[in-house]
Structure formats: structure tokens, C-alpha cells
């Protein structure tokens, strides 16, 4: 009887730079240290400073009203009750034990690229795994939307190791379905599907972490992004390959849509420059959106280990 499991068999034979697997993402649990997405942030953290939005943290729940005691924070004084009773009273709050964190993980065909290091799709999977393990270890709930060229799979937030494995398994399925012959002209539609699912799944006061290269972003999605940023904290992990920033400097290149290839040499400078400009413009459009809505951007490359990049970006 044929095995219907969509995950590629014999994962030990997969090139870890091209595809990821569940074992690799499970091991990320032991590297998920030295960084955090919640306040307080280290001084050198990208999430600290006046140029980015300050994350909300878990929030506070009102617990009780009691008499003032020496050492209480004067800012917690309830002046109305104090005036009414003639005795100083303070409000006692407790930090919310759990917060919802959502990972929006890009596994589209455009992520199936890497010039010298790992594929962008693999790095995105590893970043998602690191954050998922860290979130669960911090007693918060983690959910996800894993999307490719045609579908966006929502997973409601929970807090357990088994739930993290469920998320990682879905990422692996999408990751191992990627091939160079499956290019889709649907990048804009896939972003629209992503934000449609996000609108249904994500409510208020959550932390939303978008892990993507940003290709295919359309202005039609801006209103959905605006709403998402208005009610939640949004962080962008922007995954790019070094080659994407240096296309104009290449003497020659081979372009492909996943089915056909086109060699471009130094004699075709106009074609090369136009392609490089298109790639640059796509990167700039996404960066401008993030800047407009004060979304902190963590730049992730395909050369350095994912865990080291998170620690460096978050000040550890």
C-alpha cells in the first residue's frame, strides 16, 4: 500500500540547505535561547528605541484593591477610593500569564532560492521553529498561518510542545512540496489569502511575526495590514539572499520562472538592469510599508545561522 504522507520520504537523504525536516526543526528547541520578543528589551535590541513601535507585553489584569503599604508604587494609588475612605488604597495588578503569538510563515515558490547558503524557505522555517519554541517556553500560546502559492493553513494558538510540533510539521509539508517546476503567478493572491486568514484568526493584543521575503506584496493588502497593526504588535522577519541585493553588479545571470530559463550576459545590460530594478523595487515597496506602519524589521540572510541572527537582532 502506498504511503500517503506528503512529507518526502527518506528525509535523511535531503540536502539540509535545500529542504528542512521535522528532526531539524525539533532540534531548534535547544538553540532558542538568548532572545525574546517581549519587554523589557536589551538596550541593543532592534525592538528598543523611539523609531519603532514599542511592544505591548502581556498586559495586566486587575486583581484587588487593598490598603497602601510602605514600598508600594505610588502610581498604583486609587485616589477616588482614598478620598472616599480617608485611607490610602492601591490597585494590585498581575501580569497576564499568556499572550497569543502568531507566526505567518512564507513557503511560496519565491522562497525556494539560495545562491550560496540555505534556501530562503529553509531559513524561514528555522526562524519560525526558534520563535515557536521560545514562545512556548515563555508560557505564551503560539499559533500560525503557513502559506504557499495557493493555500494558507491557519493553526489556532495553544501552548504545548505537541502543538509546536503540529505547526512545524505543517511547515515541513509545505517546505518539502517546493520544487523549481511549480512556479505560480499568484504572489499577490497568496498575500491576500494570508491576510484574509489573519483577519479571521488574529483578534486583538497579539504579537504577529511575519516571516517572508516580501515578494508579491500589493497595495491592495495595505488596508488589512493597517488593521492588523492597529490592534496588534507586528514584527517583520525579512528573509533575503545576498545575491538579491547585488544583481546589478553581475556580469551574467540565468533567469527562470521555474519552467523556462533565460541567460542574460553583459551585452544585455538593459535587460539585466530592468530585472535588477524590479527586484530592488519589490524589496523597497515592502520596506516602505513596514516603515509607514512602524513595523520593526529584523533582516535575515541565508548565510548565517538563524539562531545567531535572532540573538544579534534582539540585542543578546
Question: Would you write up a description of this structure?
Answer:
The protein has 316 residues and is an alpha/beta fold. The chain folds into 2 domains: 11-49 and 99-313, von Willebrand factor, type A domain (Rossmann fold), CATH 3.40.50.410; 60-95, no CATH class. 33% of the residues lie in helices and 20% in strands. The strands form 3 sheets. Strands 5-4-3-6-7-10 form a 6-stranded mixed beta sheet, sandwiched between helices. α3 (120-137) links the parallel β3 (100-106) and β4 (141-147). The longest helix is centred in the last third of the chain and has 24 residues, at 269-292. The termini are far apart.
Separation of the first and last Cα atoms: 51 Å
The CATH C-level class name of the largest domain: Alpha Beta
Written as H for each helix and E for each strand, in order along the chain, the element string is HEHEEHEEHHEHEEEHEH
The CATH H-level superfamily of the largest domain is von Willebrand factor, type A domain
Shape: elongated
Number of helical segments with 4 or more residues: 8
How many distinct domains? 2
Give the overall pLDDT as a whole number.
80
Number of E-type strands: 10
How would a crystallographer describe the biggest sheet?
6 strands, mixed
Give the SSE map.
Layout: H1 22-27, E1 60-67, H2 79-85, E2 89-95, E3 100-106, H3 120-137, E4 141-147, E5 152-158, H4 161-176, H5 187-201, E6 207-212, H6 222-231, E7 233-240, E8 253-256, E9 261-264, H7 269-292, E10 297-301, H8 306-313
Parallel strand pairs: 3-4, 3-6, 6-7, 7-10
Antiparallel strand pairs: 1-2, 4-5, 8-9
Helix pairs in contact: 3-4
Organism: Vibrio ezurae NBRC 102218
Protein name: DUF58 domain-containing protein
Domain DUF58: 64-281
Amino acid at each position: 500500500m502506498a504511503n500517503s504522507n506528503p512529507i518526502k520520504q527518506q528525509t535523511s537523504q535531503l540536502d539540509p540547505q535545500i529542504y528542512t525536516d521535522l528532526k531539524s526543526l525539533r532540534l531548534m528547541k535547544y538553540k532558542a535561547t538568548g532572545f525574546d520578543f517581549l519587554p523589557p528589551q536589551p538596550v541593543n535590541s532592534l525592538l528598543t528605541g523611539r523609531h519603532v513601535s514599542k511592544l505591548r507585553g502581556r498586559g495586566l489584569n486587575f486583581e484587588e484593591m487593598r490598603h497602601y503599604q510602605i514600598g508600594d508604587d505610588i502610581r498604583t494609588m486609587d485616589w477616588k477610593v482614598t478620598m472616599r475612605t480617608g485611607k490610602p488604597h492601591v490597585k494590585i495588578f498581575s501580569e497576564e500569564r499568556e499572550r497569543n503569538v502568531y507566526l505567518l510563515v512564507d513557503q511560496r515558490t519565491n522562497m525556494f532560492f539560495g545562491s550560496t547558503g540555505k534556501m530562503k524557505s529553509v531559513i524561514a522555517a528555522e526562524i519560525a521553529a526558534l520563535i515557536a519554541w521560545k514562545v512556548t517556553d515563555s508560557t505564551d500560546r503560539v499559533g500560525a498561518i503557513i502559506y504557499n502559492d495557493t493555500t494558507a493553513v491557519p493553526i489556532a494558538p495553544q501552548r504545548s510542545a505537541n502543538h509546536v510540533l503540529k505547526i512545524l510539521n505543517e511547515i515541513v509539508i509545505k517546505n518539502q512540496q517546493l520544487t523549481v517546476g511549480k512556479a505560480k503567478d499568484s504572489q499577490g493572491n497568496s498575500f491576500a489569502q494570508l491576510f484574509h486568514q489573519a483577519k479571521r484568526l488574529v483578534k486583538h493584543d497579539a504579537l504577529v511575526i511575519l516571516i517572508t521575503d516580501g515578494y508579491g506584496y500589493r497595495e491592495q493588502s495595505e488596508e488589512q495590514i493597517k488593521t492588523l497593526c492597529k490592534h496588534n504588535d507586528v514584527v517583520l522577519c525579512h528573509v533575503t539572499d545576498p545575491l538579491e541585493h547585488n544583481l546589478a553588479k553581475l556580469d551574467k545571470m540565468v533567469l527562470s520562472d521555474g519552467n523556462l530559463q533565460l541567460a542574460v550576459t553583459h551585452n544585455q545590460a538593459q535587460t539585466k538592469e530592468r530585472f535588477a530594478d524590479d527586484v530592488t523595487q519589490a524589496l523597497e515597496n515592502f520596506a516602505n510599508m513596514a516603515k509607514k506602519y512602524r513595523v520593526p524589521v529584523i533582516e535575515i540572510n541565508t548565510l548565517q545561522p538563524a539562531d545567531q541572527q535572532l540573538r544579534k537582532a534582539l540585542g543578546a
